[in-house]
Structures are given as C-alpha cells and as structure tokens.
Amino acid sequence: MKSNRRKFLKTSAVSAASFQIVPRHVIGGQGHTPPSETYGAALIGCGGRGPGTYERMVKDLPSKLVAACDVQKSRVDGYVKRKNPKAKTYNDFRKLLENPDVDLVAIATPPHWHALISIAAAEAGKDVLCEKPMTRFIAEGRAVVKTFERYKRIFQIGTFGRFGAFRSSTSRTIHKIMRSGLLNPNSGVHIKKGGLKLHNWSGKPGLKPQIPSEDLDWDLYCGPSPFKPYVPPRVGGTHRNYWDYEGGGMCDMGQHHFDPQQWIYGKDDTSPVSIEAFAPPSHPDVTGMWAWIELTYSDGFTFVMDSNEWGPGYDRKKSKQVSLSQLSENDQEKIKAMPDPEPLLSFGEAVKQRKPAGGHPEAAHRAACILHLANLAIRLGRKLQYDPHKEQFIGDEEANRFLNVPMRSPWHI
Amino acid sequence: MDIQPYLDSFPLPSNRGILSEINKEKTEKSVREAMQNPELVASEIVKWLLDPGAEGNDIQARHLLHTMAVRIPNYDKKLKGDIRAKFSLVLARALSENYPDRVKAFIIRQLQICGGGEVVPAIGVFLNVNGIADDAAQALIAIRKNSAEQFRNALPKIKNNLSLYSNVLHGLAELKDEKSKDFFIEALENENEECRLLGLWGLVQIADSSTLELFLQAEQKEKGYSRIKSTSYCFKFAEKLPKKEALKIYRHLKDTRTSTHEKYILEIVEIELAS
Question: pLDDT at residue B236 above 60?
C-alpha cells in the first residue's frame, strides 16, 4: 500500500520503535517515490560548514540522517550525537557510500576532496549537495560533470545566489540579452571590488611540523593531495590558505560572488579566454596577496576581481552594465519577445522531479573555473590564453600542468 | 655567487604570520636578475633549503626558487634558449646530493612545474624510496615525456612493498602506458583491493579490447566500494571501445548487477542497450 509523509507523521508517534527508512533505490531511481517519502541522508565532513550544508540539502525534503563521516573521529561522533544518535558513523567516505540506506549526500570536506567524493557518490547512486568551491583544479570539474551525466544523479553546488538573481527581472533581461548573442562584441564589464578575503585566508609559511592527534586520520585527510608534514592550520577552516587543499579567499568566496553573475551574464557553458593578473610572486605552499584579475570572454564581456586589500586598484576599464539600450530597436523587440528562462530548481525540487538543479554540475564547474583561472594567473605571473572548449591553456604546456594536477595513489579522476 | 639580496627582496611573515608585506617591484626585479644566470642561482638556492622543523627558516629561499620554476618556461620562450632545461638539470643534480628527504621532495615538486624529459631519470630513482615516492610519481606524471619507462623499470624492484607498488601502478595507469598491459593484468590477482582496482583502471586507460574478458572476469569479483568503482570502470571502458564490445560490457552489467540496490545501474544499462 502506498504511504505518504502525512500518514507517516500521524503514525510515527506510535510506531517510532519499529520505523525503518525504505531507501529510494529499493523502489527504483528516476521518478520513483519511496513509500515513506523519506530520504536517507548523510553528511561527509562534519566540521565547520558541514551541519549547515546538511540542513540546506534536506530543506524541503523529508529526510533523516542515517550516516555521517569525518576523518576526525570526535567530530563525527559529536555531530551524530547531536543530530541523530542512531545514525551510523564512518571515518572513510568509501564505507559510507556502500550504505544502501543513503540516498542523499552533503559534502563539506575541504575542497581537495569535493570532486572525488562527488564522483564516488554519483557512482554509488546518490544525489549530492557539495560545498563550494566545487573543485581544486579544472580537470576535476569536467570529471564531475561527465559522471553526473553518466549516472543521471542530481548535483547542486553549495551556493545559492543564482536563485536570487533569477528572481530579479533586470537580471533575467540581461540573461536573455547575453544568451541571444545579439550583443557581440560585448563591452560589458562586471567588477567585484573586495569581498575575497585576502588577509583572512592567506597562509602562514614556515610553521614547524607537529604530530597530529590520534583522533585525526592525517593520511586520509591529505588523500589525493601531497602528503605533507602536519601543521595545525592545514586543518579546520584555515585549510583554505594552502594550495594543496583550496585557493585562498578567491576560492572560498569567489563561487558565492561569481556563480550568480555567471548565470546573469549567460556564461554557464563557457569560460574566459584571456586572463591577466596584477600580483606579486606567489608562495609555493600558501595563498597570499594580489591586486586584481581581469578575465575576458570570447565575446568581449569582462569579469574583474579587484581585491581592495593589496596593491593598486583596477583602473583599466569602468564597470559597464549590459542593457537593452545597447541594442537596436529591432533587437530590443526580439529580446522582449523571448520567453523568460526556465526557473531554476532547488536541490529538493530537482531530486523530486529528477531534473537538473539550478546549480548543476556544468554551471558549478564553469563558476569554479573562473576562480581557478584567476588563481593561476596570480600563481604563474603571466597572461594566459584559454580554450574554453578544450579546457586547456593555449601554447603553455607548463601552465596546463596546473589544470590536471596528478593525485596521490590510489586516487584519480 | 651571493644570492642574499635576491632572498632579502622576498618577504618574511608579518605579525599575523602571513606574507602581506610583499613588494611586487622588488621581488620581480630580483627574479629578472636571477634569470640572467638561473643555473648558478639555482645551485645556490638549494643550499638554503631546510628540512621542515630544522632551526632557521627557508621561507624566502622556497619562495624565490618556486617563482623561478614557475616563470622560467616563459623566459625560455622569450629568449629562445634552453635555460628551462639547464635550470631543471641543476635542480635534478641536487637530488643526488646529501639533502634531507623533504628538501628533495620540495625540489621534485619544483621540477613537476618546470622540468622536462631531461630530469625524468633523476626523479625516477625516487620511485623506490618510501616517503618521496609519491612526490616523484606525481612529478613524473605531470612531465609525462619519457616518464612511463621510469615506472616500468621501478616496478619489479618494489613489488613486495604495497605502497610503492600501488604508487607505480597508479603512475602507469595515469600515463595510459600500453606496454604495462601485463602489469595491470597481474594486479587483478593482488590481495589488496586498491591494487586490484588500479589494475582494472589501468586496463580501462589503455582500452585494449584483447583484455576485455579478463577485465570482466576480474571486475565482477569486487564487493562494496570496489564494486561501485569497478562498475564505473565498466562504463568508462565501454565508452572507449567499438559498439560491439561496448554492448558486451553493458550486457555483462545487466547480468551481474541484479541486487536491489544496483537498480540505478540497470537503468543506465537499459538506456545504453536501447541506443
């Protein structure tokens, strides 16, 4: 007999002791509804943003925490104790993904694990909400896109500004102008001044190595990244300051700032072709200072990051909004006649409808590319030419080595 | 050669411990001057590198060496010389000297950025050395040129050391080394599941249809997470093979992924079989 959530809620008080989640995969995947309409949910990475990421994932979805995982045992134990003491705990995400009761996975590890765990979760048949930034380097993003296409799973990146952008009629009009291709060449310039937390998320080089606590599986924490001597800031939020795990304030905040702009300006399926930074030489281990980065798309549209924290301000171009007035009257009428873009689905809606979420893998990957390309212009100290179709730098073999960084065995994309 | 002025142009940590006091003009002037004689500068910088945890600091030395490694390919193109290779060879020679392992690992990481085929043998030596082997492997994978031979040569010597063996198998698979077909097949029988998966992945990477039967026999023995991964290897292998052989893989999946919680696999397989 088909049950539903209302019945479940009515009866749960008397049958809590015998309640069992019927996993979605028992009934089937795409388009099927579990008898209880309750999803088995899991969190991987229980510190920092983890609990918030989990709550965002299960918003609007009837669900129950059935599993949690962290390389630091005290963190996963503490989280489960607070959230649902009956949930299973794991140290290794691979074991969690074997659990058939898990339908949904929230990933809130440091970013060097985001792509690999997202891929493995999709391969295990789970839907994923993954914290930003989506990846540590560009080739990881393409691998995530391909995997979610192959397995027909739902992915949403953990930033939601584009949903607000969609609700703005001005943003929707700009989106239509950009997607129409009628404004080419495009002299639009969007400048993001400040908000990329250079000083907050710059690393401290030269710290003396220490022995990690027995509570922390340091080898598994490093995972695909180089195995380095442990220093405390490599763990616990300040991981952002190390190239081994993330990319400083650029990656920490950049996906929030540029993901909505990428949607507004219709660039979810492409990347900049020219990237230039004003920055001093970058340290090999830790993130640091920069002044500005200019990223230009093939149609001429430009994103600028102006750190406002170090060096001279950006003064090459002025901010310039894209608007209907830049088009001929005839083209303006064409834009007005265009239907609005399809509404962006939340993660919950996407899971229920089995349709792509608003922050789907390709969009999330392209937004992450903006940040990675910006960071590479800082790190490499030269102007870069990028092919957004091949996802390779043009004529710069050494720069291309930073796009697909070899991982530590046995990890690979 | 006195490189102290170059080092001094790079910052030490501020009161907050970060490198916020960096001066772009001063550092880049030093780098430009160092690039006039990169071999000599490189041979001096390596003497300043310290084992992490040792007394003193090498923050500026690491910063300068890394900046040269990152920027020298561009200088090479501008000058049309061979300074990238010469610089890299100086670093490679330092690997045979008596420096601490973590200093050698740092030098190898710089060669990962700027090195070419000329430094591959010097790095390959470390595939046999616990603690540096994974740094060496990742550098070789990034360099690619002539690297597979280093992994193949190392493999017979390290078969009894699980982590070194896994590291080498992984490198050969990353490099899609067709000459390693037998190594991958041999790995399918390994007691360690990570090594078995690397064997399966290696076969997918080289996509040699003559190995398909062995691949399918081996992959269906896997359980748990390994079964999840071996299923993904089946899909990747199928995408690389001609349609007839791809269909064989999809039919194999249809026959073997029969448990309730593998239903999502069958949904994909049905679509592929119908297409």
Answer: yes
pLDDT in tens, B7-47: 999 999 999 999 999 999 999 999 999 999 999 999 999 99
Six-digit token string for B130:
């616990």
Residue type for A412, please? H
Chain A CB within 8 Å of residue B252 CB: no
Report yes or no: A305 and A250 within 8 Å, Cβ to Cβ: yes
Residue B127 token pair: 């595939």
Hey, how many other C-beta atoms are within 10 angstroms of the C-beta on A260?
21
**CA dist., res. A393 & res. A403, Å (int):** 9
Nearest to B187 by CA among B207, B172, B209, B208: B172
- Please tell me the predicted confidence (pLDDT) of residue A4: 35
Using a 10 angstrom Cβ sphere, with 0-12 exposed, 13-18 middle and 19 or more buried, the burial of residue A150 is middle
Of B18, B67, B229, the CB nearest to A202: B18
* Per-residue confidence (pLDDT) for residue B79, from 0 to 100: 73
Query: Measured between alpha carbons, how far is residue A215 from residues A71, A94, A113, B63 in Å?
Result: 8, 19, 19, 33
| Per-residue pLDDT, A17 | 33
Amino acid identity, position B234: C
Q: Report CA Rg, chain B.
A: 24
Give the C-alpha separation, B62 to A203, whole Å: 14
Q: Which of B27, B106, B267 sits opposite A280 (nearest CB)?
A: B27
Q: For residue A354, what are the contacts with CB-CB under 8 A and spacing of at least 6? A: A29, A30, A31, A152, A154
Domain ranges of chain B: 1-115, 121-175, 179-275
Shortest Cα distance, chain A CAs vs residue B207, angstroms: 16
Tell me the count of A-B CB pairs closer than 8 A: 172
**Helix axes A361-380 and A138-151, enclosed angle (nearest 10):** 170
Q: Which of A29, A288, A412 sits opposite B201 (nearest CB)?
A: A412
| Closest by CA position to A215, among listed A323, A318, A78 | A78
Predicted structure pTM score: 0.95
Closest Cβ opposite residue B24 in set A202, A311, A396: A311
Query: Taking all residues of chain B, what is their mean pLDDT, rounded to a whole number?
Result: 96
Instruction: Say if B112 is an interface residue toward chain A (CB within 8 Å).
Output: yes
DSSP 8-class letter at A324 = G
Cβ(B28)–Cβ(B9) under 8 Å? no
Report yes or no: B174 at the A interface, CB cutoff 8 Å.
Answer: yes
Neighbours of B186 (CB within 10 A): 15
Rounded distance between C-alpha atoms, residue A102 and residue B13, angstroms: 46
Give dist(CA A75, CA A69) in Å, integer.
9
Contact B161, B130 (CB under 8 A): yes
pLDDT of residue A1: 29
Q: In whole angstroms, give the CA distance from residue A231 to residue A284.
A: 16
How far is Cα A173 from Cα A165, in angstroms, rounded to an integer? 11
Which amino acid is residue B6, in one-letter code? Y
Q: Which residues of A touch B228 (CB under 8 A)?
A: 97-98, 120, 123-124
Structure tokens at B185: 């097949």
Beta-bridge partner residues of A42:
A67, A105
Query: A400: closest CA among B112, B169, B121, B146?
Result: B112
3-state secondary structure of A94: helix
Write down the ipTM of this complex.
0.97
The answer to whether the Cβ–Cβ distance between A204 and B70 falls below 8 Å is no
B143 vs B204: CA distance, rounded Å = 22
